[in-house]
Every structure is written in structure tokens, then in C-alpha cells.
Design a protein that fits this description.
By secondary structure, the protein is of the alpha/beta class. The chain has helices at 10-18, 57-67, 82-95, 113-117, 155-173, 227-230, 273-283, 295-303, 357-366, 380-389, 404-412, 423-428, 452-464, 466-472; strands at 31-37, 41-42, 53-54, 71-78, 98-102, 123-128, 132-133, 139-143, 146-151, 183-187, 192-193, 199-209, 212-219, 233-237, 243-244, 249-254, 264-268, 288-292, 309-312, 331-345, 372-373, 418-422, 432-446, 475-476. The chain contains 14 helices and 24 strands. α2 runs parallel beside α5 and α7 packs across α13 (452-464). The longest helix is centred in the middle third of the chain and has 19 residues, at 155-173.
């Protein structure tokens, strides 16, 4: 009636009942413990103190276990205390069929997990470190017949190593067949640098271009967790290659079989006001993907035909005009809104409180312990920052996130002391704000765009969003 490897659901149970079968031998779902480690971890829903981060690994791993036929046993998070970790890991080992931990795989003085795991049973650790990026510190062990995995603490590393190395083993334990991977071919529009000696996985977002699908990198690095929400899949760079050349047609391994190329691809400057417009567009039944590449990156992508709309806020230093001077032939501008940029800091910081902009910049540069948070190259805000610094490279200069939200969060959490961001995000986190100046945030499009109907819908959504934009603190054009 049912072959081995069949997942038993409502239809299968109905079939068994119809032939009078009251029970059947099945594979029991493996009980897999999920335990996070690290002094810095806070559980989602709790208040986030300075220098703390939310534990995003445990919920993601638990969901991935469910997708692969296992029962996830959430065991919380433990501090980096050897006695506490020893007791917690031993208890988890005893009650579960397998155990997945995250964090504590690196061979540093503060990373205790892998040393404790090595003492749980024989043979102990069988692999510690793999030639993958992200994911190098992966630790694999078998202790008295039970598999134990210590995933890297960085979210991207943890998820890639889970899906590439751990999930296939768990599916065998669950009696499931191999995953049916789905892939497709797409062109990489930019050169992607890589490190010789390690196979590298690079997350990409798909967009339709005139000559086929384009796979645009959406973020690299072990901690780029937000890139997962933007990515459709990943491309693989061989360990013997130092890059993937621009224009390469390669295979994209998809994260899901339900990939839909959006109606609009928007690449360029980041602004929270854009969320209001995208929300209105969604209510019209249209989808959009937004990638924060910075104003210049967006214009370049638009010129190459890789996106439909490029949000920009670039000022011509000669005449002071915004955006129009930067358009290439064949582009036009959709007016957006005005927004206030400013110097952002934590309220109560005496170095900046009640001071003018010039005095605050001077105070920040004079204090070597004062840490800034910058913006990514190509961003309009980065141009403003470099103008303020006049060639200086203060501490934190090379910390270059892609959004205003990330800048404000770094300051609010105490990871940085100052940065430049728009007023609405500063207000949202109750940060101090010294105005730098109002700027125009507009949208560049191609006059002969292939997505005329979708762009028209975007303009209508923009018009309908004026009230929401004013509530956020913007001034619609």
C-alpha cells in the first residue's frame, strides 16, 4: 500500500483505514535537541541590552529540523560558563537522539562547547573545521552512537552547514529520501571575490533582465542573517577559484521550490519610507524586491538593465541640485520625498549633547575612544559622511552597514557612538539628532522600461502613500 520513505499524512491514513489497517510500522521522528551557547544571546521577545544579540539560530534550526522530518527539542541558551555548559549539554545528550548546538566551535579561550562535546562519549569529535565559506568552524562528533553537531555561531554559517552537511544525515535517521534540490541557470552581473582554498556559498536574489535571469549577490559574511530574507538561493564558487567573473552564467541552488520573480526589482538607496510604498503596491497585488546597494550602485544596476527602479539621493556639489544631474541618457526621475539627514548619537552623551554639527564632528574626531558607524560605499549617505570627515578615518570607519536602521541600531545598542542617518530612524530608537540638511529621495527609471505597467502601478502607490509618508516624518514631493 505504502512504500518505504512515504511521509504519512491524512491521505495515507485514510488509505490504511480503508483496508482495515489499524496500525503500521513507521520511522519515529528523531528527537533532536537544539541548544545555543554564548554570553551575548537574548531570546526573541526579551529586551535587548547593549552588546547583546537575539538568538536567531535556535528558531531557524528548529524550523529546519521540522522540514527534514525531525522533532526539535528547544533547550534554550546557555552562558559561556564551563560548569553550566557541562551540565546542560550532558542533560541534553541524555534525553535526545541527536544534539545540535550553535556557538563555541572556534578554538578560542572562550569557546568551550567543542571541548565539552569531546568528552561526552566515544569516539568523540570526528571533524573540526571544514573547507567551506561560510561555515569553516563546523564541529561533528559521534558520542556513544549519538550524532552531535556544533554549528558555528554566526547565523549564515550555521544554516549553510546545516543544510549542506547535517540535514542529509538527519533525513536518513528520519527514514526520508534525499531532498529534491531545485536549481536554475542565471547570470552574475558583478565580479564576486572569493578566498582560495575554501568552497564559498554566496546568496543571490533573482531578477528578470532582457537577456534572462540575473543572480545579484545580496550579502556575504557569516553574520549576514538579513540576507536570507532577500535571497532566492546561492551560487557556489570553487575552492580553486579566487572569484566568479562578472557575466558568468552559473547554477543557482534555490532555497525553496516556490520562487517567484517579482513584478518590480528596486535597487539603490535605502529608506524606511519605501516600505510604505511597497506596502501599498502589495495591496494592489504587485510584488517587489528591494536590494540596498546605495544610490550609485542602483544607478549602475539600472543602466545594465538589472532593476526597474533605482532610489537615489545624490547632490551635485557644483550646483547643489539633487539627483537629476546624475541621470544617464534614457533615464527619467520619479519625484519621491524630502527627508532630513543628521548626526545621530545616544541621548545624554556629553560629547554631543546640545552642540552644533561642526562641534560634534570635532569632538568625535578628537576622542580616539569614540566609535563611529559608517555606511557602505556607493551610498548617498556615505558621500555626506566623507564630506564631513574631510579625509579623516576615525575608529569604526570600516564598519559599513547598508541601511539607516543598521546605523541607528548600532548606536542604540552601544556598538557605536555616532553615525549619520535619517531623522525617522533616530526618533524610532529615541536617539539624539543634529540636523545635517534636507535632501531629495527620488526614483530613477528607464524611459523605455520593459516593466511599464508595474512602474505605473508604483507611481500610483507612491501617490497613495503620501499620508503615510508624512506620518513617518517625510515631506512628499
Amino acid at each position: 500500500l505504502l512504500r518505504g520513505g512515504t511521509v504519512v499524512g491524512a491521505r495515507e491514513i485514510a488509505m490504511l483505514a480503508a483496508v482495515g489497517c489499524s496500525d503500521a510500522a513507521v520511522w519515529r521522528k528523531p528527537r533532536v535537541g537544539v541548544l545555543s551557547t554564548g554570553d551575548e544571546l537574548v531570546q526573541p521577545g526579551e529586551a535587548l541590552a547593549p552588546a547583546k544579540i537575539y538568538d536567531s539560530n535556535a528558531p531557524a534550526i528548529a524550523a529546519a529540523l521540522d522540514e527534514n522530518g525531525c522533532e526539535a527539542i528547544r533547550l534554550g541558551a546557555l552562558r559561556d560558563d564551563e560548569a553550566l555548559l557541562s551540565v546542560g549539554i550532558q542533560r541534553a545528550f541524555e534525553i535526545c537522539d541527536a544534539l545540535i548546538l550553535s556557538g563555541g566551535t572556534s578554538k578560542g579561550a572562550g569557546d568551550l562547547t567543542y571541548r565539552i562535546v569531546g568528552q561526552l562519549g566515544r569516539p568523540g569529535i570526528v571533524v573540526h573545521g571544514v573547507a567551506l565559506k561560510p561555515g569553516k568552524p563546523l564541529c561533528l562528533a559521534v558520542c556513544d552512537g549519538k550524532p552531535i553537531v556544533v554549528l558555528p555561531g554566526f547565523p549564515t554559517s550555521a544554516m549553510f552547514t546545516f543544510h549542506d552537511i547535517v540535514a542529509p544525515v538527519l533525513r536518513i535517521l528520519a527514514g526520508l529520501p534525499e531532498r529534491a534540490e531545485r536549481s536554475l541557470a542565471a547570470r552574475v552581473p558583478v565580479r564576486i571575490a572569493s578566498e582560495l582554498g575554501r568552497t564559498e556559498f554566496v546568496m543571490v536574489a533573482l531578477a528578470a533582465a532582457e537577456n534572462g535571469l540575473v543572480a545579484h549577490p545580496v550579502g556575504k559574511g557569516s553574520g549576514a542573517v538579513t540576507a536570507f530574507s532577500q535571497a532566492d538561493g546561492f551560487v557556489t564558487i570553487d575552492a580553486l577559484a579566487d572569484s566568479m567573473s562578472a557575466g558568468t552564467t552559473t547554477t543557482v541552488q534555490l532555497f525553496s521550490s516556490h520562487v517567484r520573480v517579482p513584478d518590480l526589482v528596486i535597487m539603490g538607496s535605502h529608506c524606511i519610507g519605501l516600505d510604505a510604498v511597497i506596502g501599498e503596491l502589495s495591496r494592489q497585488g504587485r510584488s517587489a524586491r528591494v536590494l540596498a546597494l546605495g544610490s550609485l550602485g542602483g544607478l549602475t544596476a539600472l543602466q545594465r538593465g538589472e532593476c526597474d527602479i533605482a532610489p537615489i539621493h545624490l547632490m551635485d556639489p557644483k550646483g547643489g541640485a539633487y539627483n537629476q544631474p546624475f541621470l544617464s541618457e534614457g533615464m527619467r526621475l520619479i519625484p519621491g520625498w524630502q527627508r532630513m539627514q543628521g548626526f545621530v548619537f545616544r541621548k545624554g552623551d556629553k560629547r554631543f549633547e546640545c552642540k552644533a554639527l561642526a562641534a560634534s564632528i570635532e569632538a568625535a574626531l578628537d576622542d580616539k575612544t569614540c566609535v563611529m558607524v559608517n555606511r557602505n560605499q556607493g551610498a548617498g549617505t556615505r558621500t555626506l559622511i566623507d564630506g564631513l570627515l574631510k579625509g579623516a578615518r576615525p575608529t569604526g570607519y570600516w564598519n559599513q552597514p547598508r541601511s539607516h536602521n543598521a546605523v541607528a541600531a548600532a548606536i542604540a545598542q552601544g556598538r557605536a557612538d555616532w553615525g549619520v542617518a535619517i531623522k525617522p530612524v533616530a526618533d524610532a530608537l529615541s536617539l539624539g539628532f543634529i540636523p545635517l540638511g534636507a535632501e531629495h529621495y527620488d526614483f530613477a527609471v528607464l524611459e523605455s522600461s520593459r516593466s511599464v505597467a508595474a512602474i505605473t502601478a508604483f507611481e500610483e502607490a507612491l501617490s497613495k502613500s503620501h499620508r503615510a509618508l508624512r506620518v513617518l516624518g517625510f515631506v512628499p514631493s
